[in-house]
Amino acid sequence: MEPVYRCVAGIDVHKKMLAVIVRRDQDGQPQYEKRKFGTTRKEILALAAWLQHWQVSEVVIAYASQLHLRWMVRYVLDRREPFR
Asked: Model's pTM, two decimal places?
């Protein structure tokens, strides 16, 4: 079966840390890259650059509160980058 998305990311949002995993299909085999980022503007911009480096097309965000989701959307998704 052909994967629907070739490169996706999951972000687990914590108060002071973002745990991120990227899954990509390489020659039919899944490969994973894990990394942690802080919650400062500089770290969030580094996260966006890292996701671009891996050519991530879809991002799933897990969060505990609406407040965390709002700032994630503001700094990552509203940058008009090719993430959904």
From this structure: 0.71
Cα separation, 41 vs 55, whole angstroms: 21
Question: Which residues lie closer than 8 Å to 28 by C-beta, 6 or more apart?
Answer: none
pLDDT at 78: 52
Complete domains list, the chain, with CATH? 7-77 (3.30.420.40)
Phi-psi sector, 57: left (phi>0), alpha (psi -120 to 50), beta: alpha
**Position 62 pLDDT exceeds 70:** yes
